[in-house]
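Suppose a colleague, Dr. K., hands you the sequence of a protein chain of 404 amino acids and asks what its three-dimensional shape might be. Before reaching for any lab equipment, you can write down a predicted structure in token form. Begin with the sequence itself:
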Amino acid sequence: MKVLQYNDTYKHLGGAETYCLELLDKLNALGHDTYWLAHSDDQAKDDKHIVLPHSNIGRVKYFSSKYFFNPTAYRQIREALEQVAPDVVHLHHNRFYTYSVFKALADTGIPTVATIHDYTLLCPSQYYPDLYYDSPSGKRRSVDCQLICSQGKCLPWTHRIGHRFAQDRKRGKFISRISTFIAPSTKLKEYLERAGFENVRHLPFFVDAQKWSFDAHRNMKNVVLFVGRVEENKGIYMLIDAIRKLIPEIPDLLLLIAGGGTQVERISQLVRAESLDDHIKVLGFIDYSRIEDLYNRANLLVVPSLDMEQFGLIGIEGLASGIAVIGSATGGIPEWCIHQQTGLLFDPDQPDELVDSIRKMLSDDSLRKQLTNSGIKHIQNVYNEQQHFDTLLDIYASAKKIKG
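The predicted structure, expressed as tokens, is then:
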């Protein structure tokens, strides 16, 4: 089968790009002719990577490309589709040239499926986390969340009007244009169906068992790891506060913060100002090829997201690597971080629960060993490659039949 993966960015920013690259490599290894189409000013790595230059530079072009139409992007995307002539297109992030992509797909008539990587199609307040948390209904999104925020009260009325025009319209276009949607978590599948999405298939991410292998010689102590975008809505400040509280009773406690984001410099300044250099190391953006080394430098991974994290790919990689995991009880995280079975969960509305969970995990060696062993087995049973690709190829074949 010939497959074209489309993602609107080429730079490795997060889980969507990680997944695209994994699919590209694995599908080609399975004998399928697979390509990745994206936009960037970077050069393509090889003929399987088709990289189009951005044509949305400037505020006016950016806005019109995102919410209306970009003729240059449309022409380039259509030419790439016609050149590759895939049996199926697999959409990932499609935020910047949405309508240009859909028109190119409609004009070429190629069957299309889409993996939904976050809640932005459903919950525009993800663009405004500060407004959300300052709103009268500032509860966590997993509590009484309507998701279609342009119709709810999570945002000021000015933003609701804007998103009624922008996000609701875009969501309708997705529903009408895509034959099959893929949800990495059952929670996301539930919310998509509540919002009117049809033919939603649950397909969790997978873990390469050989790549994320357990290091039996890991012997570090009291090293906590955060990997991801360094943003407020990822719970990074709550994690830092927890580390502060635990330093007096765990003097050698160390937090490693790996990732880029808007809060990197601010947190670096905070660390210097409070003389926390011995306890918090801000590593900045780490190339994905070095992530495994990070897992082997720590004995605890924390995923403290405040938002409705749709899955949390970094968590199953950590579990597969034999590192103990703590996660917030929100979104899809509890599907792999099963409380007291594969990890510990905490309520992100109760920061002291995170403090207690870190203390418990670091002080109880038998608990940590029990959870990591159980976590490795869970990943091998539930998030293995064979199951993932059997289901994915069935989704592709079904999309072709629907289009036919």
